[in-house]
Protein backbone atom coordinates (compact mmCIF):
# COMPACT_ATOMS: atom_id res chain seq x y z
CA UNK A 1 0.00 0.00 0.00
CA UNK A 2 1.08 3.60 -0.56
CA UNK A 3 3.34 5.24 2.00
CA UNK A 4 2.07 8.79 1.34
CA UNK A 5 -1.64 9.68 1.46
CA UNK A 6 -2.78 12.97 -0.11
CA UNK A 7 -5.72 14.56 1.75
CA UNK A 8 -7.31 17.50 -0.09
CA UNK A 9 -10.54 19.28 -0.90
CA UNK A 10 -11.62 18.96 -4.52
CA UNK A 11 -12.72 22.60 -4.63
CA UNK A 12 -9.36 24.24 -4.00
CA UNK A 13 -6.64 21.69 -3.43
CA UNK A 14 -7.24 19.26 -6.27
CA UNK A 15 -4.74 20.81 -8.68
CA UNK A 16 -2.06 21.00 -6.01
CA UNK A 17 -2.83 17.40 -5.01
CA UNK A 18 -2.52 16.26 -8.63
CA UNK A 19 0.79 18.10 -9.01
CA UNK A 20 2.14 16.75 -5.72
CA UNK A 21 0.99 13.27 -6.75
CA UNK A 22 2.93 13.58 -10.00
CA UNK A 23 6.10 14.99 -8.45
CA UNK A 24 6.19 12.72 -5.40
CA UNK A 25 5.40 9.71 -7.60
CA UNK A 26 8.39 10.62 -9.78
CA UNK A 27 10.54 10.63 -6.66
CA UNK A 28 9.18 7.62 -4.75
CA UNK A 29 7.18 5.62 -7.30
CA UNK A 30 3.53 5.91 -8.30
CA UNK A 31 2.47 3.05 -6.04
CA UNK A 32 3.85 4.93 -3.00
CA UNK A 33 1.47 7.89 -3.31
CA UNK A 34 -2.29 7.56 -2.73
CA UNK A 35 -4.58 10.14 -4.32
CA UNK A 36 -8.17 8.95 -4.34
CA UNK A 37 -8.95 10.25 -7.84
CA UNK A 38 -6.09 8.18 -9.29
CA UNK A 39 -5.57 5.34 -6.84
CA UNK A 40 -9.04 3.85 -6.36
CA UNK A 41 -9.89 1.37 -9.11
CA UNK A 42 -13.27 1.65 -10.86
CA UNK A 43 -15.98 -0.35 -9.11
CA UNK A 44 -14.22 -0.23 -5.73
CA UNK A 45 -16.00 1.01 -2.62
CA UNK A 46 -14.33 4.41 -2.20
CA UNK A 47 -15.04 4.64 1.54
CA UNK A 48 -13.40 1.27 2.23
CA UNK A 49 -10.51 2.09 -0.11
CA UNK A 50 -9.86 5.48 1.46
CA UNK A 51 -10.02 4.31 5.07
CA UNK A 52 -7.78 1.31 4.29
CA UNK A 53 -5.26 3.59 2.57
CA UNK A 54 -5.17 5.96 5.57
CA UNK A 55 -4.73 3.02 7.97
CA UNK A 56 -1.85 1.60 5.93
CA UNK A 57 0.02 4.78 4.95
CA UNK A 58 2.98 6.17 6.86
CA UNK A 59 2.38 9.87 6.22
CA UNK A 60 -0.83 11.79 5.56
CA UNK A 61 -0.25 15.11 3.77
CA UNK A 62 -3.11 17.54 4.47
CA UNK A 63 -3.24 20.01 1.60
CA UNK A 64 -4.57 23.32 2.93
CA UNK A 65 -5.78 25.75 0.27
CA UNK A 66 -7.14 29.27 0.79
CA UNK A 67 -10.74 28.07 1.29
CA UNK A 68 -9.94 25.05 3.48
CA UNK A 69 -10.92 26.63 6.82
CA UNK A 70 -14.08 28.25 5.50
CA UNK A 71 -15.36 24.87 4.38
CA UNK A 72 -15.42 23.67 7.99
CA UNK A 73 -17.27 26.82 9.07
CA UNK A 74 -19.83 26.78 6.25
CA UNK A 75 -20.59 23.10 6.70
CA UNK A 76 -20.38 22.94 10.48
CA UNK A 77 -24.13 22.89 10.97
CA UNK A 78 -25.35 21.05 7.89
CA UNK A 79 -22.65 18.47 7.06
CA UNK A 80 -21.87 15.81 9.62
CA UNK A 81 -18.19 14.92 10.06
CA UNK A 82 -18.81 11.45 8.60
CA UNK A 83 -19.73 13.09 5.27
CA UNK A 84 -16.76 15.47 5.23
CA UNK A 85 -14.06 13.21 3.85
CA UNK A 86 -11.23 15.65 4.49
CA UNK A 87 -12.09 15.66 8.18
CA UNK A 88 -12.81 11.94 8.27
CA UNK A 89 -9.46 11.05 6.70
CA UNK A 90 -7.57 13.29 9.14
CA UNK A 91 -9.44 11.89 12.14
CA UNK A 92 -8.70 8.36 10.90
CA UNK A 93 -5.03 9.34 10.56
CA UNK A 94 -4.97 10.49 14.19
CA UNK A 95 -6.78 7.33 15.28
CA UNK A 96 -4.24 5.14 13.44
CA UNK A 97 -1.36 7.25 14.80
CA UNK A 98 -0.10 8.24 11.35
CA UNK A 99 2.32 11.09 10.77
CA UNK A 100 0.14 14.02 9.69
CA UNK A 101 1.76 16.97 7.94
CA UNK A 102 -0.21 20.06 6.90
CA UNK A 103 0.93 21.41 3.53
CA UNK A 104 0.06 25.10 3.23
CA UNK A 105 -0.43 26.25 -0.34
CA UNK A 106 0.58 29.68 -1.65
CA UNK A 107 -0.72 32.52 0.51
CA UNK A 108 -2.27 30.33 3.24
CA UNK A 109 -1.51 31.53 6.74
CA UNK A 110 -0.54 29.24 9.58
CA UNK A 111 -3.53 27.37 11.06
CA UNK A 112 -5.01 28.33 14.41
CA UNK A 113 -6.64 25.91 16.86
CA UNK A 114 -9.53 28.33 17.43
CA UNK A 115 -10.44 28.27 13.74
CA UNK A 116 -10.79 24.47 13.54
CA UNK A 117 -13.58 22.18 14.80
CA UNK A 118 -12.73 20.37 18.08
CA UNK A 119 -11.43 17.08 16.68
CA UNK A 120 -9.42 18.94 14.04
CA UNK A 121 -7.77 21.47 16.40
CA UNK A 122 -4.58 19.37 16.84
CA UNK A 123 -3.80 19.90 13.13
CA UNK A 124 -2.95 23.52 13.95
CA UNK A 125 -0.18 22.38 16.32
CA UNK A 126 1.53 20.20 13.74
CA UNK A 127 4.66 21.42 11.99
CA UNK A 128 3.71 22.25 8.43
CA UNK A 129 5.38 22.42 5.04
CA UNK A 130 4.79 24.97 2.30
CA UNK A 131 3.99 24.33 -1.35
CA UNK A 132 4.16 27.54 -3.36
CA UNK A 133 3.54 27.80 -7.08
CA UNK A 134 6.64 30.01 -7.37
CA UNK A 135 8.95 27.35 -5.87
CA UNK A 136 7.42 24.04 -6.94
CA UNK A 137 10.61 22.03 -7.53
CA UNK A 138 12.40 23.48 -4.50
CA UNK A 139 9.39 22.91 -2.21
CA UNK A 140 8.86 19.34 -3.42
CA UNK A 141 12.55 18.58 -3.01
CA UNK A 142 12.45 19.87 0.57
CA UNK A 143 9.17 18.03 1.20
CA UNK A 144 10.66 14.74 -0.04
CA UNK A 145 13.69 15.20 2.22
CA UNK A 146 11.42 15.87 5.20
CA UNK A 147 9.22 12.86 4.43
CA UNK A 148 12.30 10.63 4.42
CA UNK A 149 13.47 12.31 7.63
CA UNK A 150 10.24 11.57 9.54
CA UNK A 151 9.68 8.21 7.88
CA UNK A 152 12.93 6.59 6.74
CA UNK A 153 10.99 3.69 5.17
CA UNK A 154 9.91 6.07 2.41
CA UNK A 155 13.58 6.59 1.52
CA UNK A 156 13.87 2.93 0.55
CA UNK A 157 11.28 3.54 -2.15
CA UNK A 158 13.15 6.63 -3.31
CA UNK A 159 16.25 4.54 -3.92
CA UNK A 160 14.25 1.78 -5.61
CA UNK A 161 12.44 4.24 -7.83
CA UNK A 162 15.69 5.85 -9.00
CA UNK A 163 17.44 2.57 -9.93
CA UNK A 164 17.40 1.95 -13.65
CA UNK A 165 15.73 -1.27 -14.71
CA UNK A 166 17.74 -3.55 -17.00
CA UNK A 167 16.60 -3.99 -20.61
UniProtKB/TrEMBL annotation:
A biological process from GO: signal transduction
Domain TIR: 1-151
Matches recorded under InterPro entries: TIR_dom, Toll_tir_struct_dom_sf
Name of the protein in question: TIR domain-containing protein
Organism: Streptomyces inusitatus
Amino acid sequence: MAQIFLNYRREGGAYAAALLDELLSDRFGEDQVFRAARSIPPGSDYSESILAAVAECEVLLVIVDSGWLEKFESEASDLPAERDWVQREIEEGFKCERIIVPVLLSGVKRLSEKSLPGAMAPVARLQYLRFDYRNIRQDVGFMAEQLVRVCPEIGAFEIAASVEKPD
